[in-house]
Amino acid sequence: MELGLDISNEQIAELESAIHDIDFASAAEHEKKVRHDVMAHVHTLAERCPLAAPIIHLGATSCYVGDNTDLIVLKHGLELLLPRLAAVISRLSKFADEYKSVPILGFTHLQPAQLTTVGKRASLWLSDLLMDERALSRARDDLRFRGVKGTTGTQASFLQLFKGDGEKVKALDKRVAELAGFDKRYIVTGQTYSRKVDLEIISALSGLGATVHKMCSDIRILASRKELEEPFETSQIGSSAMPYKRNPMRSERCCALARHLITLHANAANTHAVQWLERTLDDSANRRITLAEAFLTADATLLTLLNICQGLVVYPKVLARHIAQELPFMATENIIMAMVQAGGDRQVCHEKIRVLSHEAGAVVKQEGKDNDLIDRVKKDKYFAPILPKLENILDASTFIGRAPEQVTEFIEEEVKPVLNKYHDVLIAVEKPVSLNI
């Protein structure tokens, strides 16, 4: 109407009055006859608005209705998920900062390696989550509107409506996008917007799934070592047969959901790959499942993950015991260096430590006893010059490198700038999450 087509204010008013007055039963009956969801609603709306019936769906296609709506929904969906993700990042950053100096065994190949800290390990999870926030934000910001493009994307029907005036067609395309809340639109489309758009969004959500699965798998491993636990209610039952069990069921649930989220990437990729020429309809049924499930799964996963992060429990004495079992081996190089500084010969010291280490290792592996390497060092007169320093040499805090400083720098330089974007909404989304398990 703004661009000069013969449309009256009365027709517009009639359509506006029917926005929330939808006869779904009538639409269902129409769909049984016409076997077309959009046309079923076009007929239903025409019956409700007889004055406006001649202009309903004027020049449009089903994808004008469906695809543009999907783009609006996808944008809103990402705007709902991003604050949830920010809440997880916020809570986990507090945890990382609190435990940035608490030593814990680091692992490579799932074998004890050098020490790290609880907070440093959490910062590794955080780093992945920041990449997910970036990917989801980019997917949201890159979204454009399909607008008015016609049956094969050429805008031929709209050019006919405006009697060959291409500038008015461009103005209509731009105006419809603005009214839908988009400042950009896809200049070229087929009948649909490219399903590559869906793939980009599902790829970001699938990446989030991979992050969550890795993090919650780590938590499950740490729980098995009794070093760290997810929240466990006072009356919660871990096992129907084993009353003592404290199963990490929240983390297991996150892994289960995340695994489903990861698999949806293949669905979106395959759907885009088989869209022949301007489009085929074998995308429709798949997308109705895949897009909805991706967002719902991500939402449930983030809610559960936030609950976990709000109640993580660390057991420092267990950490210390496990460190004590492995630290003597890790400290051998420090012992050698101390002996050299005290005037000892490095090669001689290295050989003595090697022999004692193998003896201690045999006690651990073959006899199932605790690591007694330090006792063996204390009993060997060769090491007498460094015995007064031995306690300091074995101080776990001297084996964590710059881990505490790294966490502080990471939070200040990378985490906080991201959280600042969500400052106004974090208070609401960070409220304690209660899960009905």
Helix content bin:
55-70%
User: What is the count of β-strands?
Assistant: 4
Largest sheet properties = 2 strands, antiparallel
Given the C-alpha coordinates, what overall shape results? elongated
Number of helices: 17
The strands making up the biggest β-sheet line up spatially as: 1-2
Mean pLDDT: 92
The secondary structure category is mainly alpha
**Rg of Cα set:** 31 Å
Uncertain regions spanning at least 5 consecutive residues: none
Amount of beta strand:
under 5%
Report, as a whole number of angstroms, the end-to-end distance. Answer: 54 Å
Q: N-to-C SSE series?
A: HHHHEEHHHHEHHEHHHHHHH
Label this structure with key terms.
437 residues; mainly alpha
Helix-strand blueprint:
Elements: H1 9-17, H2 24-34, H3 37-48, H4 62-98, E1 103-108, E2 111-117, H5 118-142, H6 156-161, H7 166-179, H8 196-224, E3 228-229, H9 249-273, H10 284-310, E4 313-314, H11 316-330, H12 332-341, H13 346-367, H14 373-379, H15 390-393, H16 403-420, H17 423-429
Antiparallel strand pairs: 1-2, 3-4
Helix pairs in contact: 2-3, 4-5, 4-10, 4-16, 5-8, 5-16, 8-9, 8-10, 9-10, 12-13
Keywords: Lyase, Purine biosynthesis
Protein name: Adenylosuccinate lyase
Catalytic activity: (2S)-2-[5-amino-1-(5-phospho-beta-D-ribosyl)imidazole-4-carboxamido]succinate = 5-amino-1-(5-phospho-beta-D-ribosyl)imidazole-4-carboxamide + fumarate; N(6)-(1,2-dicarboxyethyl)-AMP = fumarate + AMP
